[in-house]
Amino acid sequence: MAIDQPPLASMTVEQWEGLCQRCGRCCYGKVDYNDQIYLTAVPCEFLDLHSRQCTIYEQRCSMKKECVPLSPEVIALGVLPEGCPYRALVPSASAPRSWRELPPGLRRQLGLAP
Fold first, then answer.
1. Mapping DSSP to helix (H, G, I), strand (E, B) and coil, where does residue 43 land?
2. What does the H/E/C string look like for 21-84?
3. pTM greater than 0.90 (yes/no)
4. Residue 33: beta bridge partners?
5. What is the per-residue pLDDT across 71-95, written as a single tens digit (0 to 9) for each?
6. φ, ψ for residue 36 (rounded to 5)?
C-alpha cells in the first residue's frame, strides 16, 4: 500500500475507484479450474477495446452477472491481473494464470484456441 494511501477501511468511494488504472485487463473472461483462476483472451462484450473502458460501468454489476463489485474478499480470489493496484490491498491475492496453461481438451471445450 502506498504511503499516502489511506487504510482500506477508511477509503471513500472516490479513493477506492481512484485506484483503478482503467486498463481493462480485468474485463476479460475468467475460468475457475481446480481452484485456480485463468484469464482468457476473450473480452467482455461491454469493453470498448479502443478506450479500454466499460461501456456500462455504472450498471455493470446488474447487467452482467460475472461482474461483481470489488472487495478484499473478491480480490483474494485471484481474479485481478498482475500489476493491478487493488491487489496491493490484499497481499495474499494471487494473479490469474494464462488460459494457455489450461489442459488442451478443456481449452477446446471452452472454445479457446488450442
1. strand
2. CCCCHHHEEEEEECCEEEEEEEECCCEECCCCEECCHHHHHHHCCCCCCCCHHHHHCCCCCCCC
3. no
4. 36
5. 889 999 999 999 999 998 898 999 9
6. -130, 140
